[in-house]
Amino acid sequence: MRAVVYHGANDLRLETLPVPLIGRHELLVRVSVCGVCPTDIKKIHYGTVSPPRVFGHETAGTIVRAGSGVQGFKVGDRVALHHHVPCLKCHACRHRAFAQCLHYKRTGITAGFEPAGGGYAEFVRVLPLVLPGVVKIPPRNSFLEGAMLEPVNTVLKAVERLSPLRGDTVLVAGQGPIGLMFTRLLTLRKVKVIATDLLESRLQTAAAFGARSVVRVGHPQKPTAATKGRVPVSKTRVRGEASLATVVDQLTSGRGLDGAVIAVPSKEAMREAQLLVRGGGKVLLFSHTKRGDLAELDLAAICVDEKDLIGSYSADFLLQREVARLVFSRQIDVRRLITHQFPLEQTAAAIGLASKPTPDSLKVVVNQQLDCTV
Question: Is the pTM of this model over 0.70?
Answer without folding.
Answer: yes
